[in-house]
Specification:
3 domains; 3-stranded antiparallel sheet; binds zinc ion
Amino acid sequence: MDCCTAVEREIDKVLSKFTCLQDHTNRTIGELINSIQSIRNELLEVPDDQELTATQALILSQSVKRIREAVSRMSTEHKDLHGSVSKVGKAVDRNFVSDFSVITTDGAFDGETKIKLLNEVIAEHFLRQGMLDVAEALNEDAMLHLDNARKEPFLELHRILGALKVQDLRPALEWAEANRQKLMEQNSSLEFKLHRLYFVDLIRRGPENQVEALMYTRNFAPFANQHVRELQILMGSLLYLKQGLENSPYVTLLDPIYWEEICDVFTRDACSLMGLSVESPLSVSIRAGCHALPPLLSIRQVMNERRVPGVWANKDELPVEIDMGMEYIYHSTFACPILRQQSTDNNPPLRLVCGHVISRDALNKLANGNKVKCPYCPVEQLPSEAKQIFF
Ligand SMILES: [Zn+2]
């Protein structure tokens, strides 16, 4: 953050100088144009065959001199501005690290398979953002051959979301009805919320929709048990059909937040139903990387200063734990109570016969011949009886 502030300070300096220069230049040019204009008018009044008087010639030559001086002054000021602009570049270089090679894993993106995977991730990101043409262009240029089955879920998602954004509920309703069973299984209230928006919209449009609104209430039948309170509110709102919802105690039903909410609910539920993560894995990775870079860079610097390069020998593992906050925690993790280390693929958690769980490295350390004593309840068992568990 300090780096950003330092650069911002330089940018502010340039901007204030620039505004100052711009004002000054505009004013000078305006004055010069006015004076040229008045000289021109004066000259036009002089008949063609008459020579300039000595005073007129003097005024003319003085104006030319003044213009020359002004132009050269402006160009000097402009050059001065260049100095300030280049200071911004220097401030960026000084405050930000441009070379991250010290903390990258060599060969992370080498090889055809890895490059193809990376391109697929990028193409999927564009599909997810709804930038279908960009994704298609990348698909062709990088010869990814993404098949339609891979693209279809994203296309459908964006078609429905696009409709929801212009308050067209039909595509979303059709999709939710078709997937009702699965949505119910994941305890989703998407379909109910879609019907509620449709119903409120009918009521909002006034008494001429009374019959249609009443008929529409049938759609709520499958949700009667789950959403009793909300349904009571909706039925109550029917009483204000004539008076208008906006003049009723049910005015909150018209809150535009419901339309914003429905887009989020749809994205979340549809993604989870289609087996997609709600956020693009690429943008999550980049955000996580931005979060992790500063501490990693400072660790690297400390390691270089103290000449302990070996500490970060295992490139698959970070030398320090980086607290990413709850937002980035997707899986449960296991920390071995004996070694006080987080388990890894090479050192997975093992469940002992007695039910206690320790890491494989801890078990190997504790094993005595072909026997091991649980460090918690001293049950003796064979190390081979321990079973790997997966979180
Ligand atoms: Zn035990």
